[in-house]
Amino acid sequence: MDVDSRMTTESDSDSDATTAAALGRGSGSETSSSSAPSTPGTPTAAPASPAVAGSGPRPAPGYTAVNAVIDKKEDGPGCRCGHTLTAVPAVGEEGSPGYVGPRLILFGGATALEGNSATPPSSAGSAGIRLAGATADVHCYDVLSNKWSRLTPLGEPPSPRAAHVATAVGTMVVIQGGIGPAGLSAEDLHVLDLTQQRPRWHRVVVQGPGPGPRYGHVMALVGQRFLLTIGGNDGKRPLADVWALDTAAKPYEWRKLEPEGEGPPPCMYATASARSDGLLLLCGGRDGNSVPLSSAYGLAKHRDGRWEWAIAPGVSPSPRYQHAAVFVNARLHVSGGALGGGRMVEDSSSVAVLDTAAGVWCDTKSVVTTPRTGRYSADAAGGDAAVELTRRCRHAAAAVGDLIFLYGGLRGGVLLDDLLVAEDLAAAETTTAANHAAASSAATDTQAGKAPGRYAYNDERTKQAASESAPDGSVVLGTPVAPPLNGDMYTDISPENAVPQGQRRSSKGVDYLVEASAAEAEAISATLAAVKARQVNGEAEELSDKEQSPDSSSSNKHSSLIKPDAALSNNMTPPPGVRLHHRAVVVAAETGGALGGMVRQLSIDQFENEGRRVSYGTPENATAARKLLDRQMSINSIPKKVIASLLKPRGWKPPVRRQFFLDCNEIADLCDSAERIFSSEPSVLQLKAPIKIFGDLHGQFGDLMRLFDEYGSPSTAGDIAYIDYLFLGDYVDRGQHSLETMSLLLALKVEYPQNVHLIRGNHEAADINALFGFRIECIERMGERDGIWTWHRMNRLFNWLPLAALIEKKIICMHGGIGRSINHVEQIENLQRPITMEAGSVVLMDLLWSDPTENDSVEGLRPNARGPGLVTFGPDRVMEFCNNNDLQLIVRAHECVMDGFERFAQGHLITLFSATNYCGTANNAGAILVLGRDLVVVPKLIHPLPPAITSPETSPDQIEDTWMQELNANRPATPTRGRPQAVANDRGALAWI
Fold first, then answer.
1. In the chain, how long is the greatest CA-to-CA distance?
2. Does 908 participate in catalysis according to the annotation?
3. Using CA atoms in the order 171, 176, 180, 184, what is the torsion angle rounded to 10 degrees?
4. pLDDT tens, position by position, 481-529
5. What is the third-level CATH fold of 456-495+506-619+638-946+967-992?
6. Which among 199, 487, 596, 707 could bridge 153 via Cys, Cβ 3.0 to 4.6 Å?
7. Which residue among the candidates 83, 763, 894, 908 is catalytic per the annotation?
């Protein structure tokens, strides 16, 4: 294809289908907003627009010019259009020597008009772009210092271009497509890596066919994972295709998507912006007939792998193309744009906001109910100075926190070199319209007899057939994904290079842990007595259940766990079976140096105690397209405060003097919100893969942050849009930070009720956590009055926690085990909540307190070293239970295991423990399980950190009271599973059973 040496602008006779192309901006706004707060050095934005008379969504904010610092002429970007502007988040911890604040990266664009740029044409309609003026230079705007600088990255840069696209992936800027002096740019992906002190260009190797050369298209990072490219022009015609590149799957490969629903027509010069929760909005553009578009389309990925388009609600104030758009929280800010024939959008429609929480468009005056009919002139200046400032096209936009920045563009045939800023104070607020919609929805649910919570959030999902499984062709998790080392490729270390088992298993503290845990047995003895009294009345029923179940000690011992399925008789493809991945992912114990947090992938055979890892996801069957746009964040501010304060996988530090940051009123609000959700859930949750499963945490908040840091965190910046989280109980006691652990998990549950799931452990009981640390911590950190009140309120909440979870109807997750009494899942489902340990049955005791026997050779029921009345169950009981319920795997927690996970019953039961170095002496690893959609279970581990080389005198923030150490010494933990234990009188114990 021959490409002309220059690009004409859009006129009434636009002919991009037959000529090379007209220059338009790419989608420099398609970046995630960083969360850097404003500082005294930050540019001052125009005052926020006043609220509309009568409460409602705020109008679009006004823009002001920024007088940025430019030390040398070459540091400033100068006049240009068709460039991109990309927001890159801060690097490092604020206040540390290596901290780098948020930046805007400007790349490429055209710096000259057709003819003599010093003498601009009489109208925009006659202004063209000289492709010889296209550039490949990089400029950086430091938001905190208000200063421009020119960057000279290492490596081979992309060719000069304009009308390309750019987006941020962490601290890297990805460039693709566009057009330059030599014609259409190649489809290669170029990455500007800003991680190191000296930026560097890289070319990304992508396998297979891709979107091909194009310009005027859009690109955005969706859900912090999928790089989406849509539309544009290939030099012949506008396009409507959608391509996706999964940044978490290597080798990289483009995949052409076929989204469901009504999508946009073939178009170019649109914008695409990704909301933080994974919703992409494509706005405006110009179709194949050179008609500007006013509609907006949402694109979202369902958890079953489907992508779906939906038309955004509201009335757009004006059609437009060659505009700019960027999200600030739930509000999409749109600025400028062209209409063809040299005309541009102006008047109050020049700046607009699509409030996706309220479902309405706003301009600078009010909510838009009908399209505006203002003046559209190429030459005349607007009557309003603020409108004139934003009247432009082919510019670029990016957002940092609540600030929206615009740079450059074209107005009236003149290239611009100004930087504008606006502040959207409404972005962090919940609009009245959104509140009203939420209230109306809640009222409707109440009238329909539904309780609020996860099982009332998506009607279509609850109507799904129980036997429905993940569709074929869904994303499959292969080799475990591990964190990169300094931005390099994922590391696969062979088993011979692994840390020897002996080095990891210190014998320190073995004798201490083997001591009888008499205190724990005493704590449960009163409860056991009450349960035993009730057991007499229910003994006949329990025995009846047992007599009706098949004998597993012989004939069933080696039988298949899967009963014949009716579906198989119809020649249907059998559902995938649960299997353990042959490698586990491990993070080394080193914390400092260039290799801090090194990742290893070890064969399962390298572990003395084998285990698996599980993760799940929840499909969304949204038949109504509007539901795609209804992904709203919680309106409760307390969960947001907790998440903002605590969800810091790399930056969290224990509070100085251990003062807890929430008061009892805030904890009350948090518990009330979470309790409403728990009360709407069944006792046995019904969950879908993919999902991550966490074992005991025991107040070791630092380990939780390490697991989030290494293997993904439940946030919009993490992987919450694509994988769910399940926690198996024992959140409190033994560790130093039970309040942080419980508060964050509750906040995550409120914020992501359909994605974060908690079930109950044996320490979520007042009589237990009164003795093992949680009550003492509440008083010590909040004062006696508030601490005791908080402890009581948390324990009332614990009585509402679900008791187990079924994943894909193949895996059951619980805290303890099946003990002597549990033969069918229905027995757990029939437990009515709220339920206390005292009021519970032997089923509840077994569910929360029982353990497997020492190994696969010990069958039947045996006494439990935890105390009289508690039992252990053998592999025959596991096989019997799985056969009775058509299950393939039991995942449970409750016991510390050396590798963080351990297999039992020939792999049909896995014990999972996530806290490292339990009670400061066990030196055990912590693990999670990740279950993929293909039901492959992958274990992921972290090892204990080495002791800190600090003293209270030199590091006041490391001061920890000795109360927890004394408590653990006085009330030793149950010995680590797999280590020698004191054996009770076996004959007497069996007689008791």
1. 103
2. no
3. 170
4. 333 323 332 233 222 233 333 333 333 343 444 343 445 555 566 566 6
5. Purple Acid Phosphatase; chain A, domain 2 (3.60.21)
6. 199
7. 763
